[in-house]
Amino acid sequence: IMACGFLLLGLTVGKFSSLMLAPPPLPSPESPEGQKLTSALCADAEALPLAKSMSGEEWEAWDAYTTPGGDGLANRLTSGPLAGYGGIGYQRVFYNKTTGEYVVLAWLGRGLGGWPGVVHGGLLATLLDECLARTGMRGLDGGVGVTARLELGYKMPVKSAGWWVVRSWMEEGADNGTSQRKAWVKGRVEDLAGSVYTEGRALYVVPKKVKLAGLGDKF
Questions:
Q1: Secondary structure E strands in 24-119
Q2: 207, 145 in Cβ contact below 8 A?
Q3: Dihedrals φ, ψ of 160, to 5°?
Q4: Among residues 35, 37, 168, 193, which is most buried (max CB within 10 A)?
């Protein structure tokens, strides 16, 4: 009986370890299975209480990088190469017209791991930089700028294959000047319950002697 018990325990632990360290391959975003999983994510997102709470008149919403959209969608890192159920399977931007806050609701798949089951820190930095930029660039001359400084604080591991929230807002009391050529912004990555996992702060500037292509007021 003891031998059978140890055998069963060994098989269970071995199977679990194998799935964690070498999980089965993810379907490609273009495959029928991949498209089915992505469609399911869209339906799940609409049913989330957070998404429903941001459906009032004070909010605007759009899928990330569908504006300006067109052929530029596939050429954006988070909506092109990293898209799909195993990557960023869903990424919708919400903008509060009253407070100026941006909120991004995103599904981060297990293909984004830096460690089994944990989202890569560089991916979190990318998502924070993009969300912070939406806030910072909105008030800059021409509505576009570049990242001059990005500060991050990782508080807890962000687990993959789950829903996550990225928020950003203008930093109060920061020296943003009056020329609309720089902006300090703060933000964070949260779970659906509002617990903070990663914090960020960034400076966006309008570079001198360089003309940047516009992104529009929604991207």
A1: 59-63, 88-96, 102-108, 113-115, 118-119
A2: yes
A3: -80, 170
A4: 168
Q: Which two tokens stand for residue 185?
A: 């912004």
45-94 per-position pLDDT tens digit: 999 999 999 999 999 999 998 876 555 677 789 988 999 999 999 999 99
CA–CA separation, 89 vs 105, rounded Å? Answer: 11
Give 165-184 as a DSSP string.
EEEEEEPTT----SSSSEEE
Report residue 126 CA to chain centroid gap: 8
- 94 by Cβ neighbours in 10 Å (0-12 / 13-18 / 19+) ranks as buried
26 contact partners, CB below 8 Å, separation of at least 6? 34, 84, 85, 86, 109, 110, 111
Q: Do the strands 88-96 and 196-205 form a parallel or antiparallel pair, or are they unpaired?
A: unpaired
Mean pLDDT (the chain) is 86
Model pTM? Answer: 0.84
